[in-house]
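#help-structures

NK: newbie question. if I give both the sequence and a SMILES, will the prediction place the ligand too? trying with zinc ion
OV: yes, paste both and it writes out the complex. here, I ran yours:
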Amino acid sequence: MLQWKIGDIKITQLIELTDASGALQVLPDATPENLDTIPWLKPNFVSPEGHLIMNIQMLIIETPDQKMVVDTCIGNDKALNMEGWSNMQLPFLDDLKKLGHDPDSVDKVICTHLHVDHVGWNTRKVAGKWVPTFPNARYVMVEKEFDFWQSLEEDPFGDVFGESVKPVVDAGLADMVGPDHQVAEGVSFESTPGHTPGHVSVHIKSQGEEAIISGDMMHHPCQIARPDWVTPFDADSPAACATRKQFLERYADKPVLVLGTHFANPVGGRIVRDGKTYRFDV
Ligand SMILES: [Zn+2]
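OV: that's the protein plus ligand as structure tokens.
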């Protein structure tokens, strides 16, 4: 598991799954032929067969006085319309404990957005009921994002809202906030809408050092070189594309560590200009 230090804030990775099967179809433009035009993606981010390598991972942020987790992956026991993701039985919570973090010790659960692979471990199934995995935490989510999913008639992935969002709200643990919310000292949201209406990235700043956790504003480093490659899972692809281009422009050639929520190891790097576009410098 990788770890980064930003001033006196520590960020630790916990991987739930790594996929290099090419089965996810998350970026239809990312064909082996098109990926060959971006040679720096191999070997970390593209397999020898030309498939995208992607992590589903949670990031643990420890400031001097708070412990937070960002995006809780897919979860166990969920009834999902997604082959390989439904009814998973992975030792994710045991792995979290092995890192020295009991779920009871988490102060905040941060949701960049409310998609299936970002809210799963918000809850776990106990005696047939969904209960909060982190019972002492405040679950921080953007109000606009919550409203969108609450009013959606049907989520194609399954009852994600009912299994993984509503139970923490019903337990009184959710805080609905704005898209520029400061979560803790040195940790704040940065509005990055498009993939979903209330999508946010998480900005970390301490002692003059900075990092940003992307969420699904980008799914894969290939979108740093090709920001107009979109995913069919976007709520609004033109908006997602515009957000991504603004983000790349804002952080290019800056000493800011970008941590991609779905990026394969080494996960973090810096955006640098590369001719008319950008590259990920790891
Ligand atoms: Zn995702």
